[in-house]
Amino acid sequence: MTIRSASDIKRSQKESLLLRIISQLYHQASCDDKTLQQAYVTRVQLSPSKTLCTVYFYMPEGEAAFKKVLHKISLYKPSMRKALAQEINGRYTCELAFRFDDQFEKTQKIERLLDSLAEPEISDE
């Protein structure tokens, strides 16, 4: 078991808060714009300096489809930052960066490999 420092715990708490607020804001934006309903927020990662918040999105269609929607998502960045500044008490509001989250696909690939290893081999006797 690793001992986490107080700054790591505070950063995790802030990431959780940011994930909740950004997810709500994105849901509101996707209700207005139907093309945004294809993507959804999976996780948020805050930089160690707490100046950059990377928001990860996943789309079942893949990264190419996400790149097509990224321009529209980026249009909502200023209004999201303003809403974050109003919701979170702090001196600074972090900059937002949007990325495709390929972690889900990697997890699926690992699970398929483990399932194939767990299947009993059929012998031809």
Q: Care to describe what's here?
A:
The protein has 125 residues and is of the alpha+beta class. It has one domain: GMP Synthetase, Chain A, domain 3, CATH 3.30.300.20. 54% of the residues lie in helices and 16% in strands. It contains 4 helices and 3 strands; from the N terminus they run H-E-E-H-H-E-H. A 3-stranded mixed β-sheet has the order 1-2-3. A hairpin with a 5-residue loop joins strand 1 and strand 2. Helix 1 crosses helix 3. The chain is flat, with a radius of gyration of 19 Å.
Name the structural class: alpha+beta
Q: Enter the CATH topology name.
A: GMP Synthetase, Chain A, domain 3
> In oligomeric terms, what are we looking at?
single chain
- What's the order of the H and E elements? HEEHHEH
Averaged pLDDT, please?
88
For CATH, the homologous superfamily is named as: K homology (KH) domain
| Portion of residues within helices | 40-55%
Number of β-strand runs: 3
| Domain tally | 1
The CATH class name reads: Alpha Beta
Strand residue content? 15-25%
> Strand sequence of the main sheet, in spatial order?
1-2-3
CATH architectural arrangement: 2-Layer Sandwich
Rg value: 19 Å
Distance between the termini: 48 Å
Task: Report low-confidence residues grouped into runs of 5 or more.
Answer: none
